[in-house]
Specification:
By secondary structure, the protein is α/β, with parallel strands linked by helices. It has helices at residues 4-12, 19-24, 26-44, 69-82, 108-111, 116-124, 137-148, 215-221, 265-275, 293-305, 315-318, 343-362; strands spanning 56-60, 87-92, 101-102, 130-134, 152-156, 168-174, 202-206, 229-242, 247-248, 256-260, 279-284, 310-313, 331-341. Strands 1, 2, 3, 4, 5, 6, 7, 8, 9, 10, 11, 12 and 13 form a 13-stranded mixed sheet that branches. The longest helix has 20 residues, at 343-362.
């Protein structure tokens, strides 16, 4: 039996005989989109959103699956912290821990309570920003304000979290499919109608392929939102390290077996090939997969059969391998976000918003 995520991908991309199912589901997509639109209008009308006494930035998207918004959140939090402001980052946690709390990477037991994106945020922003997570992003935001009173709060994947008022809205679009595939859920990958891009204050086009330009997307986006500034970014491979943390000076020349559990696994294959890796096979797990020792044993068996020299995975997957036996020698590809476009406009908007809130608090 095929995994549900793989069936959904085939439906959204209209692959083979799944195409007819995609077309049949389109009316349900319009219904889903209409209900999402009504929900948004209800929350945005009147005073139904909870407002915090500090500015809130939302980094989100209109598509399910990975657009790289977490890497944008990390870049933004580091940049704002570098401007001298205190930052709290909010994420939703689907792990064992339900109540909102600050994420502390004290031991392996604590790691089991949080999902991969939460752990990646906490590891990447250690010493730069504090990360709070819980089932409710609003609850996590309130706790962050009460415990830290930060200058600004960034909500990761916040575009559909309408209970919390946002002062700056950033929508991240993926270069390969900026307006999704196949329409709206369940026939495609969109969470909402593309027209809601009009709600964005800033639009961020991510994962631009090497040697490609995103100007055509910028022109398409202007049909929905001509006021928003546009930022661009490429995810650049920076090297390789071990799960244990030790960084390697050179990329191994021997072939590798790659594995990941992310929204768009082909982006990982592309980044490895761009960095010069020879890939025997890419093993794909469901998004947010929780790895076990049995998974590692199976991967190493496949590695031996494929005559690969090592296993390699993403940074997002690597945070879920801590504490599992025989994982310290697994390779991890490290990445960096190369950013350009209207960054000064974005940072100026953030700074002015922080200053405006400070003035209001001093009155």
């Amino acid at each position: 039996m095929k995994r549900p995520d793989r069936i959904f991908n085939k439906i959204a991309s209209r692959e083979g005989y799944y195409a007819w199912l995609g077309w049949i589901l389109m009316p349900f997509g319009w219904l889903y989109g209409s209900l999402a639109a009504l929900r948004r209008m209800w929350f945005e009308s009147g005073s139904k959103q909870f407002r915090l006494p500090v500015p809130v930035i939302s980094v989100g998207n209109i598509e399910v699956g990975g657009t790289g918004k977490t890497s944008v959140t990390i870049w933004l939090a580091r940049r704002i912290a570098g401007m001298g402001y205190s930052v709290a980052v909010i994420a939703r946690n689907f792990g064992k821990r339900e109540s909102a709390c600050r994420v502390r990477l004290d031991n392996a037991d604590v790691r089991e309570e949080f999902t991969d994106e939460v752990l990646l945020l906490a590891e990447s922003l250690l010493g730069k920003a504090r990360v709070y997570a819980g089932r409710s992003k609003t609850e996590a935001s309130i706790r962050a304000f009460r415990e830290d009173n930060p200058d600004i709060i960034i909500v990761d994947d916040g575009f559909q979290h309408l209970k919390l008022h946002r002062d700056i809205e950033i929508i991240v679009l993926d270069f390969s499919n900026p307006f999704g595939q196949g329409g709206i859920l369940p026939s495609g990958t969109l969470r909402e109608f593309p027209s809601f891009i009009s709600r964005a204050d800033h639009i961020w086009i991510n994962r631009i392929a090497t040697g490609m330009s995103a100007e055509w997307i910028k022109r398409r986006v202007s049909d929905y939102n001509w006021k928003a500034s546009v930022q661009f970014s490429r995810i650049q491979p920076t090297g390789v390290r071990l799960v244990s943390g030790r960084r390697l000076s050179d990329i191994p020349e021997a072939p590798v077996l790659a594995f990941c559990g992310i929204g768009k696994p082909e982006s990982f294959r592309n980044s490895l090939e761009e960095a010069g890796f020879s890939i025997r096979k890419l093993v794909v797990f469901p998004d947010h997969h929780v790895y076990s020792s049995e998974d590692i044993e199976q991967l190493k068996e496949i590695m031996r059969k494929k005559r690969a020299a090592a296993l390699i995975t993403t940074e997002k997957d690597a945070v879920k391998l801590t504490g599992i036996a025989d994982t310290c020698d697994i390779l991890v590809q490290t990445m960096n976000l190369e950013v350009e476009g209207a960054i000064p406009e974005l940072l100026d908007d953030i700074q002015k918003t922080i200053i405006r809130f400070r003035v209001l608090q001093d009155r």
